[in-house]
Amino acid sequence: SEDGYQLWLRYNKLTDAATINQYKAYTQGIVLEKESPTLLLARQELQLALQGLLQTKVTFSNTFQGGGIIIGTPSSSGIIASLALSDKLKATGDEGFVIVQTRVKNKPCIVISANKDIGVLYGTFHFIRLLQTQQRIENIAITSAPAIKHRILNHWDNLDRTVERGYAGFSLWDWHRLPGYIDQRYIDYARANASIGINGAVLTNVNANAQILTEPYLKKVAALANVFRPYGIKVYLTARFSAPVEIGGLSTADPLDANVKAWWKKKIDEIYTYIPDFGGFTVKANSEGQPGPQNYNRNHADGANMLAEALAPHNGIVMWRAFVYSNEVPEDRAKQAYNEFKPLDGSFAKNVLVQVKNGPIDFQPREPFHPLFGAMPKTPLMMEFQLTQEYLGFATHLVYLAPLFKECLDADTYAKGKGSTVAHVVDGSLENHSLTGIAGVANIGNDRNWTGHPFAQANWYALGRLAWNPSLSSETVAEEWIRATFTNNEKSVHTLKDMMLASREVTVQYMTPLGLHHIMGWNHHYGPGPWIKDKPRADWTSVYYHQADENGIGFNRTATGSKALLQYTPEVQKIYSSLENCPEEYLLWYHHVPWNYKMKSGRTLWDELCHRYYQGADSVRRMQQQWSTLKGIVDEERFQQVSSLISIQHQEAIWWRNACVLYFQTFSKKDIPSGLEKPD
Ligand code: GCW
């Protein structure tokens, strides 16, 4: 069935009669005075939604007859121009919108308006969301504009259609049949992104293949860009730093070499002949073996600026990643990005964003926020979250990630005193940057339901909603998604919300409680592997990160250890530096703690660690029970899928628990606390 394919854009008949009647008062017709590709999409979407949700026929008109919904911009609609909306519209910029209930010719109507067509489309999707979630719409007056300018998905998709760390099938991009064949799926993908405000897609893996920059591929990329354009989505590519050598025939890729500069300039000019609104490049350089400016004794700014200079005349941007580490440097990996990038603050060109992962290691179930946030005031820093659950149970475990995103966004860097949150660094308000961005490493593939796990759709959804408005709560986003995706049944909404909101913490408990990190299976990153050692580099082992020994467990990153904590402001250091005060969620991230250490619960560290692992696994059982109450309320197909997945998750939570507890017991040499069943 199509239930999973439809994502949150299901327009099944609403069930509440009073709500339907209220909505019907405004659905006599849709008025669109002047057409454009984007405005036609808005009208079509609105018609689809109204007809589905209300099971009523909706007509179009280009004049106002009385009643209905008027959509457009002041320049495309005489009616909208005549309404006193200009003050409100002024505040909404190029992408925001205003939705009001008003009267035209003394007849009640709803107006969805914006300065630009894309804002009308965003406003339309927002209005539809209100209907899907059964909000009241009388006297509606909404003004909304995105807090972040570039709201982007990063696809780690290879040209052979495999997806690095992708667990939902193969890549959506059918390079072989492009540009001639346009898969309907590209359109559906664009529509889904537009519905949550995502306005950019980096099509290719950051571990880049230079072939994407050759003419045949650029024509294919242009075909995708043509599909995405009316939905407000720009395409971006990853630039392999050694491309001038690999496909350009040059002997060097040194960013300061005149021939190299000229090659990139010509290449970039060529790209714009195919894609006039091409967005720019994401670059992974000098990280995990990728080529970069350091191969030529240049720094990250030299590399980024060379590309930025060639992109600038076309308004393109560079998103230069700060995910760098090297085993040649005898240094705590958590410190390396800061060490390399902080000294470069102020030396990046105006159209460069430095793209920083949320935490200093690598998308772990829990990490502190990255120390670069707040530390590079002169450089726009872009957030990189990971939607694909590389370290969080792939597309098998139910983990709602908004709480993880929010924990990072709401964290206080104290860079300019209290309230200097990561969100305010990223939205540019802290240092007055207008170039801002949030990227999510996509969890999308060609699986029928896009993301493999039906609940993983919520993470895609959350990325879009939080990039538009980082101050939304995880709960609000979950509730919207649940109502649009599954049901408006109040009791079930409550149950689903509870499951989703608990799920991330539950996963932390059965995988990496108390600040543990990077103890998963080797290379594939699925399942427990705290015993991993003897790998090509120390920072690819688990023993490096947990440092368990007979005395205790944890990584001392304070002043007496690796000093990683000293990369943060004194206020932040103060929170974590003492063993006594450090919040327990981060305890083993920052401290090596004796097994007998007394925890807040009164238990010893060893007992507490065991309790957390057991609690995590037990909570999955609870999730299973909660889901079972959805039988008959959600469609049978998704009911069965999720039931099976949660059973696997439960077994694997027990696997994680047993493996970790038994392994760490070889160091603690203590019994499993009484009351907990013995692992086998
Ligand atoms: O999380 C690690 C992954 C790599 C990935 C890298 C990165 C694309 O294990 O697969 O490479 O991060 O973010 O560059």
Automatic annotation (TrEMBL):
Its EC number is 3.2.1.131. Keywords: Carbohydrate metabolism, Glycosidase, Hydrolase, Polysaccharide degradation, Xylan degradation. It catalyses: Hydrolysis of (1->2)-alpha-D-(4-O-methyl)glucuronosyl links in the main chain of hardwood xylans. GO terms for molecular function: hydrolase activity. Residues 7-127 form the Alpha glucuronidase N-terminal domain. InterPro entries: A-glucoronidase_C_sf, GH, Glyco_hydro_67_aGlcAse, Glyco_hydro_67_aGlcAse_N, Glyco_hydro_67_C, Glyco_hydro_67_cat, Hex-like_dom2. Residues 451-675 form the Glycosyl hydrolase family 67 C-terminal domain. SUPFAM superfamilies: (Trans)glycosidases, beta-N-acetylhexosaminidase-like domain. It is an enzyme of class 3 (hydrolase). Residues 131-450 form the Glycosyl hydrolase family 67 catalytic domain. Homodimer. Belongs to the glycosyl hydrolase 67 family. This is Xylan alpha-1,2-glucuronidase.
